[in-house]
Amino acid sequence: MIELRGISVAYDHHPVLSDVDLTIEEGELMLVSGPTGVGKSTLLGVVTGLVPRFSGGTLRGDLLLDGTSILRTPPRDRAHVVGYVGQDPAAGFVTDTVEEELAYGMEQLGLAPDAMRRRVEETLDLLGIAELRHRDLRTLSGGQQQRVAIGSVLTTHPRLLVLDEPTSALDPTAAEDVLATLTRLVHDLGVSVLVAEHRLERVVPFADRMCLLTGDARVQVGTPAELLAHSPVVPPIVELGRAAGWSPLPLTVREARRSARALDLAPPVQEVLPDAPEALRARGLTVTHGRTVAVRELDLTLGAGRVTALMGRNGCGKSSLLWALQGTGKRAHGVVASCGSDPARLEPAQRRNVVGLLPQSSADLLYLETVDEECAAGGDGTRAILDRLVPGIPGDQHPRDLSEGQRLALALALVLVARPHVVLLDEPTRGLDYAAKRALAGMLRALADDGHAVLVATHDVEFTAQAADEVVVMSEGEVVSAGPVRRVVAESPAFAPQVMKVLGAPWLRADEVVAALGARTA
Amino acid sequence: MSTLTLTRSSVAGARLPRDVHPVAWWLWAIGLATAASLTTNPLVLLLIIGVASMVVMARRSDQPWGQSFRLYVYLGIAIVVLRVLFRLVFAGSYPGNVVLDLPQIPLPDWVLGITLLGPVTQESLLAGLYDGLRLAAIVICIGAANALANPKRLLRSVPPALYEVGTALVVAVTVLPQFADSVRRVRAAQALRGGETGRVRRLRRFVVPVMEDALERSLALAAGMDTRGYGRAGGLTPAQRRTTGTLMLAGLCGVCVGVYATLDLTAPRYLALPMLGLGVVVAVAGLMSAGRRVERTRYRPDRWRWPELAIVASGVAVGVVGWWVNGHQLLIAYPDLSGAPQISLVALVGVLVGAVAAAAAPPPRQVLA
């Protein structure tokens, strides 16, 4: 239906895509994958027409829709064929209520009023958002916003839906909802879907074909099973399958479980966490925003040398809790003590020495033109910390030109230079690929080994399994469960990583299985 | 018989809970504000404020903009208090009945004409109070319109040819709260790291991330609007586009020359009103030519039914009565400062007519939280 022929894109003579051929068939779900910064968004932009109009750069090749070239058609004139949902759906909203947002695209196309009315009602039902129809878009949760954004492009009945990381900001349950919706569209309405996603473990089971960007500006296209056998980025389940030598590679938990029955492994040694000295203690902590209670009488203790993951659905009060622990966020009542002092009572400069916080949009911390200037402004030792976190970032680069992972490390180094006892991180895994997440997990482990207490809020169950010692699960501002990671994620299926879903508790990570397999053969 | 039943049911149907056309509420509020601007009578002004508040309480929705009325009332109170305070501090030598004899503070010669404190007269205080009340009443009328009608829906009900401009305005209105949000976020984030503390440098720390954020958001929004078809050319041929453009430009030039000639009395007279009229006609033709070819449609546009007409009529009636009182009952419109103000039956009834809007308007639509 849509065909890319010899597409090449270059920014400042630096090729991002070169000579890419890709065909998207009617009614298929095509997954675009690859490490960060290899041009996934660029590939999607070529299809929607946003590249090179909104990004700059040069584009060569041809783009065909049913055999006619649409390369020179601007995005607005492709709107009835291609629907696009960007990384941050809230940034693309034009109106202010759900119903108006659903109708906006149709108004632009000049549809008849009765057709608009009918399609809005159908779409509300299709996406299960009928009860939200009069709501203000800005009061919706992340998952709801994502579904409204998908709905608002569906109403124009596009033949191809292009989504850029649709689940990156969502909690595991909301992400499954959105993906189930997409599958339904593909199966019931025959819509083609082109989706870029980092977290393969979520999308691979739904994908018909995959387009893998390898980093040398080329692409490989094939079924997920073919490509994942050699891909540099793989979900844990494929890592498991590769280690165990299963063929064909299982892509869903169900398939893997069937193959895993034959596996007979000695269970992993369950490390017993030694008692850690207390680094931060909160008692009866309450945070309110107007009449909504964000955090309700919460007790929390963070041990020095421990990495604790903070999980829970979107809007359950994780960010409010972090800011209140740091001291900037006002708490209604309760006590917070770290090293004998209450962070809320300290001056900002002293507070930095007690509790460090890396906020959700870490770019807010950066304001200078080069990495060197940022390090100099941060104070003595910033560069040394940065080199330990991520070695070899060139000093003359602009912070905005760094990859997500590198920028995160720079911001983290600026926070760490004050040597805080407690380090809090708010959603640091957003937009990171597997390699960057592994590096981040390593950074957090090193911080904990230095005696810092680390609390990291995240939606990423695989990252939690990799990086955390303990997990705290929140809901409606209260702690639902807390304890060692193996126990807590075994208790809640929604938070269980893939390896545990396949092999059952106490298995947590693919590397444990690899080690156990190694021990068996040795 | 059947037509009669039909009419009756459509009369009743217009009163079912729904959003009233925003233009109706704005015309009503402008009527009230006109009446307020034409008098300093505190009784009339308080009555206007009362009528506006009552209608807001009865007919506002529980949407965010419905809650904004309070702010306008606070602003009104602040205006009155400030006006009276100014009269106290810069009392000057207002003739009349001295109520408070404060010592005058001598000022150097170069601030000639300004006096600090000094004897305060009843007339001076009342003049401040009445004047402040008039401004407050106008502000509260505007606030009432804002609370009753979604300001964005008002911007969206512009004629089709101005649709693009209307959308741009809506986006601008939406971006403001986001900007405030981004300022708050960056301020909190910058406190989390060390760095320069000098005044200029600190400003930079703060401005650079906010501007970058604003730019990124605007680009994301522009991309989102573009991919959803905003600004589609539709079936326009280049020739048609050129015609529309020429008409609009010519109209604009005509209006400019006309306005200039009207104000500059030395300019030839045939360039004044005739040119202005011609410019307006050409511009309207351009707008119509642009509007006719717009392929866009409106989803559930606000309908204009009899309650809207009644609301507008009640507002206009208040304005007309205010204008009549201003011309015919000068002592009611601008009461004597040395005595108690009085009100005439015409003014009383005239202002109360504004409350008809509350009865005529259908109840607001319920929004589930």
UniProtKB/TrEMBL annotation, chain A:
Stretches of the chain forming a coiled coil according to its record: none
PROSITE patterns named among the record's database cross-references: ABC_TRANSPORTER_1, ABC_TRANSPORTER_2
Gene Ontology terms for molecular function: ATP binding; ATP hydrolysis activity; ATPase-coupled transmembrane transporter activity
Protein name: Energy-coupling factor transport system ATP-binding protein
One cellular-component annotation, GO: ATP-binding cassette (ABC) transporter complex
SUPFAM superfamilies: P-loop containing nucleoside triphosphate hydrolases (SSF52540)
ABC transporter domain span: 2-240, 280-501
From TrEMBL, chain B:
Broad class of the protein's primary localization: membrane
Lineage: Bacteria, Bacillati, Actinomycetota, Actinomycetes, Propionibacteriales
Alphabetized InterPro entries for the sequence: ABC/ECF_trnsptr_transmembrane
Gene Ontology CC terms: plasma membrane
One Pfam family per UniProt: CbiQ
Residue intervals passing through the bilayer: 25-57, 69-90, 132-149, 246-263, 269-288, 309-327, 339-361
Record organism: Nocardioides psychrotolerans
Superkingdom: Bacteria
Keywords, comma-separated and alphabetical: Membrane, Transmembrane, Transmembrane helix
Membrane topology note: Multi-pass membrane protein
Record protein name field: Energy-coupling factor transport system permease protein
Location within or outside the cell: Membrane
Keyword Amino-acid biosynthesis: no
